Amino acid sequence: MSELNGKRVLLGISGGIAAYKAAALVRLLRAAGAEVQVVMTRAAREFITPMTLQALSGKPVRCELFDAEHEAAMGHIELARWADAILIAPASADLMARLAAGMADDLLSTLCLASEAPLYLAPAMNQAMWRHPATVDNAARLCVMNLYLRGIGANGDESPIHVGDSLAADTGERFDMVLTNPPFGKKSSVTYVTEEGEVRRESQTVVRDDFWTSTSNKQLNFVQHVKTILRINGRAAVVVPDNVLFEGGAGETVRRRLLHECDVHTLLRLPTGIFYAQGVKANVLFF
Fold this sequence. Notes:
The chain is about 30% helix and about 20% strand. By secondary structure, it is of the alpha/beta class.
């Protein structure tokens, strides 16, 4: 029996082209036995209609905080208490920023503040917005807030969320298990403007004593970094683009050393579009 069977899921939909996928998500959640209540932002309604989601969920879609029919009985409070879990998919950069700031200026953000249910976000935006320092900080803040509500990091304990450049250096920390989907993009580079006003891009090669090879290939560098931070007999699962470990040069070096020093037991091919952009093939490397 599905773990979702009998669960009450509040599905929040924010504005973004990925909002059209919400119809399939509602269908899958209901097929798993969940009861689904859809809440949409105004921007979300520009991409998919409430009528479609009402037909699939079997419940009227909630859109407005100041709804006379529902708010006569403080409907948003009841809805916040009703949910066993809140899933926001897609979660736009704008919504993440408002949630991180503790704002409650529409129904969806108000429900997130008023509910004690676990909050799950599926961020969806272009790569530049996702990599922007403001979005990175907001994502980290939301992680800390959600963990704090679950009692993790409370009572003055150190936060388990850290924001920084993982590839900068070996911090000396070691872990029994590492599960990671490294940042999208094959090459590490920095863009700058010259005195003449020309925009140029300069490749950044990561050089570390603990790495088997120096390369600007971000994916290969993350595989090497994961190997470094694993304890002896530790386990890892790393998402990598198709064939990243089957290239020549640095790719061949990393592949040979990984096979020699680790038990690389599974390479799982994923359907396209799961972790990366549509059409990009990816794998999960287990070792």
